[in-house]
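Box 3.1 A note on notation
Throughout this textbook, protein chains are presented in two layers. The first layer is the amino acid sequence; the second is a token string describing backbone geometry. Keep the layers aligned when reading.
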Amino acid sequence: MADSFVLKKFKIDKLRLKANKEELIEKGRQQASVVSPEKLGQYIPVERDVVEMIKSQEDSMIPELMGLRHQRMMKNVFTFFRGTAGIMEYDLIHGVRSGIPVMTCGDAHLNNFGFFASPERQLLFGLNDFDEARIGNWESDLRRLMVSVQLTGEINGYDQASNEKILEKTANAYKNGINYSKDLKLLDRFYLSYNINDLMNLIADDEQMVKVLNKIANRAPRNNSDKVVKKFTEEVDGQLRFKENPPRARRISEKLYEQMLEAFDEYRLQLQPDMQVFLSNFSVSDIIRYSVGVGSFGTRCYLVLLTGKDGSNLVLQIKEALPSKYDLNSLSPEEAKKQGYEEGKRVITGQRILQTFYDPFLGTTKTGHRSYYVRQFRDMKDSIDATKLDEASFTAYSRLCAFILAVAHYQSPTAPMIVGYLSECKDFSKYMVTWAKSYAEQVHQDFETYKNYLQGE
């Protein structure tokens, strides 16, 4: 099978339909008669071995980090959910799907929304993780978001009646975001972004959210390369070097260091000319392996310390881009290795489409058989901890994420089909609530199964 394998080059052709807006809306209406919204709300359990699926995913990860990865995953049922996107992707593949494609985030849970800097240094809010980005069914993102709302609501101690109300408002917010986006002119939608002041205006009557946003407004601008250098480096023989903190932060071999230098040079050559010129002011001072996140903890991730001609510093992250969990469900280990060359392009394409204003340092590279994407590390990045919100603020935050998700989906030319599809269903939100509740129960079962496995090792 591996010998006949052909690389799945990431393409956006499925989004280029030769139809006008009204024709696409009609296609969506027709699709609702093929796959009804009621069917979309029915979760049918899939027979699979959750332990073997997680082990298969971890086969390509760094063995030394697996213990710490499991600690992070098993903190609670939501962190488990974050670390097992591949399981949900498998279930979605074998479940009912709308058949309406858009550029999806692929992992749109609550913690993958947050704040980031625009090139003009505005603090913006939106999706901020694109490792699983791909062309997929629009409802896959909404389903993952709503399950994360359910699980986080449970952790926060809300009763099921309250959670159901929050879920219904979340689904309605997505529908409102689609209807809002459909009336925007193409250029207005293309340039649309939400900065922190916009959010302040949206939630002006929510005292807790206002306090949270004010804290972020004051804190986020300090999340920059200077802060990273102060926290992560030390002076050795008159030169700044990253501190080692095994197993999370580990120095790399001379051979790998040279390979990463070559990969960094390739990355620079693929950037826009203005960024190539800017980075010519910097030289590499150090590289270290530094692991991040929950779902991606254990993959290969590096920090690059750059020193400018004026003595200033810049820290970039080189992060491994594995095939999406969606693709990994159908690839052999050898095929996944070959597929790796294309994955960095997929990730940054997803980010550029869904995020609108993105990091100017965003780019790709590769070394050996591994693909990577590059971005600035912690540049004004911040997030809202949904477990520290009261019920009213949590509801507002969940609705905000759903609305932003819909706006991001509407950057795809196929999105008017969603308008047509949703127009055929008055009880759409209730169907989505039913699906989210059912799948949350599945996550709890998987969590217990894997916890028992780890305890029995």
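The chain has two domains: 2-114+134-198+395-456, 222-376. The longest strand covers residues 282-290.
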